[in-house]
Design goal:
The chain is mainly alpha-helical. It contains 25 helices and no strands.
C-alpha cells in the first residue's frame, strides 16, 4: 500500500467517524469505525518501520487528521465546555473554585449555551491554577471557542515535537506511535481534553533533563524542572514523577537548583491565582478537595475499584497501595543503580522507561482511568519507540470502556467483563515489558530501551 493510498484511507475513516458522531449511542458502528482507524494507523506504522514513508508524509497526514476535527463539536465528552466556562468566569473576575455552576444564576444568564452543554454542574472546577490561566488565555484570544482551544492544543503538540527534534529523537516510526494513534486524534482534537497540554509539558521536561544535570546548566538547566512543575499545575499526575527526576540529579548544586526551579514553577502560579482571585483559604480548601471529588464522582474503568466496589474490604485497598509502593521502590532502586554510568541521551531513555512503569502501575491501581488519561504514558513512546506494549494496548482497548455509555444510555453502566478484556492482556503485556526491561539492565551489553529500533 502506497503512502497516498494510506493517507486517503485514514482521512476517509475520519470522515466516516464524523458522520457517525451524532449516532454515538449505536456502539457497533462507532466501534467499527474506530477499529478501522486503528488498523489503518497500524498499517501506516508498519510502512514507516519499513522506511517506505518519510517523516514529512507523517507530519502532513497527521496534521490533516487533526485540522479536520477543529471545527467539529466535541464528541465523547463535555469537558471542553467546562474549560470555556472557567475561562469566561476568570475573564469576568470570578473564582471558579468557590461556587458550582448551578449556584451562579448570573453567570448562567450570561452564558446559557455553555451552561446547557456542561456536565456535572453541581461541582466546582477540578482543574489546577495553570489550567485556569490557559482557559483564560483561550477566552481572551477568541472568546468561548472550542475551535480556538483546539488550536492551542495543536500549538502545545507542535512544541512537544519540536523538543523531540531538538534533542535528537526523530525516528518517524516512533513519532507515528503518537501522531497516528486514534486515541490522540479523537480525544484531543474531537473531545479537546486538557491532558495534551499536560503530556506535552511533562515529556518536554524529560527531554531537557540533561541540561539540568550539568553544574553550569545556564538558562537551559531551568527548563526541565520548570516544565515539570508547570505540567503538574495543569493536571496533578506528573507530581508522582518528581522523585524520579530528582534521583537522576547527582547531588550537590544541580540537585538543589532543580528543586528550587521546580518549586518556583509550582508555587508562583498558585500564589498568583490566590492573590489575584482572593479568598485564599476557601480557594485552597476547594483545590485540595479535587482528589475527593474524583474519588466520589468519577470512579471509572478500573478493575480493582469496580469489581470490589460493593463489598470490598479496606484491607484490600491497603494491600493494593502497598503493592504499588513496593513496585515503585524497586523501580527507584533500579534507576539509582543505573544513573552513575549513563550518557545524557541514555539518561533520558532510562528515565523514560522508569516513568513508563510508574504510569503503568498507576493505571493498574487507580480508581479512574478515562481513555485520555493513557496519553500520559503514550507520549513516552516518542522517546522509547516500540519497546514496550502494555501502554499501547491500554490506549487502544480503553475505547471499549465507552461501551458503558451505550448499555444504559444516557446513564453510564460499566460491565465487568469489558474490564477483563481490557486489563488481562494489559497485565500480561506489563509483565512482558518488565521482563524486557530487567534483561536490558542486567545484560552484559547494558542494552538500552531503544536498542530494538
Amino acid at each position: 500500500m502506497s503512502g497516498a493510498v494510506l493517507a486517503v484511507v485514514l482521512v476517509g475513516l475520519q470522515v466516516g467517524l464524523m458522520f457517525l458522531w451524532p449516532f454515538r449511542p449505536h456502539a457497533p458502528w462507532f466501534l467499527a469505525g474506530v477499529g478501522g482507524f486503528y488498523l489503518a494507523a497500524a498499517a501506516a506504522w508498519f510502512l514507516l518501520r519499513r522506511q517506505r514513508l518519510s517523516l514529512g508524509w507523517l507530519v502532513a497526514v497527521s496534521l490533516l487528521l487533526r485540522v479536520m476535527w477543529i471545527p467539529v463539536a466535541p464528541g465523547l465528552s463535555e469537558d471542553a465546555y467546562r474549560y470555556l466556562w472557567d475561562g469566561a468566569l476568570m475573564a469576568e473576575g470570578e473564582n471558579p473554585y468557590l461556587l458550582a455552576p448551578q449556584d451562579r444564576p448570573q453567570a448562567q444568564a450570561r452564558h446559557p449555551n455553555l451552561y446547557r452543554q456542561m456536565a456535572h454542574t453541581d461541582r466546582t472546577s477540578v482543574y489546577p491554577p495553570l489550567a485556569q490561566f490557559l482557559f483564560l488565555l483561550n477566552h481572551l484570544l477568541w472568546g468561548p471557542s472550542v475551535a480556538g482551544w483546539k488550536i492551542l492544543l495543536l500549538i502545545f503538540e507542535a512544541g512537544l515535537l519540536s523538543a523531540c527534534w531538538q534533542t535528537g529523537f526523530r525516528q518517524p516510526q516512533d513519532w507515528a506511535l503518537w501522531l497516528l494513534n486514534p486515541l490522540v486524534v479523537l480525544e484531543f482534537y474531537s473531545s479537546a481534553h486538557l491532558d495534551l497540554v499536560t503530556s506535552a509539558l511533562w515529556v518536554e521536561a524529560l527531554l531537557f533533563l540533561p541540561a539540568a544535570l550539568k553544574r553550569s546548566g545556564g538558562g537551559k538547566g531551568a527548563l526541565s524542572p520548570m516544565l515539570l512543575g508547570l505540567s503538574s499545575l495543569t493536571k496533578l499526575t506528573p507530581l508522582i514523577s518528581l522523585p524520579w527526576f530528582w534521583m537522576k540529579i547527582r547531588g550537590g548544586r544541580p540537585s538543589l537548583r532543580f528543586l528550587l526551579w521546580a518549586g518556583a514553577a509550582l508555587s508562583l502560579p498558585l500564589l498568583l491565582f490566590f492573590v489575584w482571585k482572593g479568598e485564599m483559604r476557601a480557594t485552597w480548601e476547594a483545590f485540595a478537595a479535587i482528589s475527593d471529588t474524583y474519588h466520589q464522582k468519577w470512579r471509572f474503568n478500573s478493575p480493582f475499584f469496580l469489581i470490589y466496589e460493593a463489598d470490598r474490604p479496606d484491607i484490600l485497598a491497603r494491600a493494593e497501595q502497598i503493592f504499588a509502593g513496593a513496585c515503585l521502590l524497586l523501580l527507584a532502586q533500579a534507576l539509582w543503580r543505573r544513573s552513575k554510568r549513563e550518557d545524557p541521551r541514555q539518561t533520558v531513555i532510562s528515565l523514560a522507561a522508569s516513568l513508563y512503569f510508574v504510569l503503568m502501575f498507576f493505571y493498574a491501581c487507580s480508581y479512574a482511568v478515562h481513555p485520555w488519561y493513557t496519553s500520559w504514558g503514550l507520549a513516552l513512546y516518542l522517546i522509547l519507540g516500540l519497546r514496550f506494549w502494555a501502554g499501547l494496548w491500554l490506549a487502544a482497548a480503553s475505547f471499549l470502556s465507552y461501551l458503558g455509555y451505550w448499555f444504559n444510555y444516557p446513564q453510564v453502566e460499566e460491565r465487568v467483563w469489558l474490564l477483563w478484556i481490557e486489563y488481562l492482556p494489559f497485565y500480561a503485556l506489563l509483565f512482558r515489558d518488565l521482563w524486557v526491561w530487567v534483561k536490558s539492565m542486567t545484560g552484559p551489553d547494558q542494552e538500552s530501551p531503544s536498542a530494538s529500533r
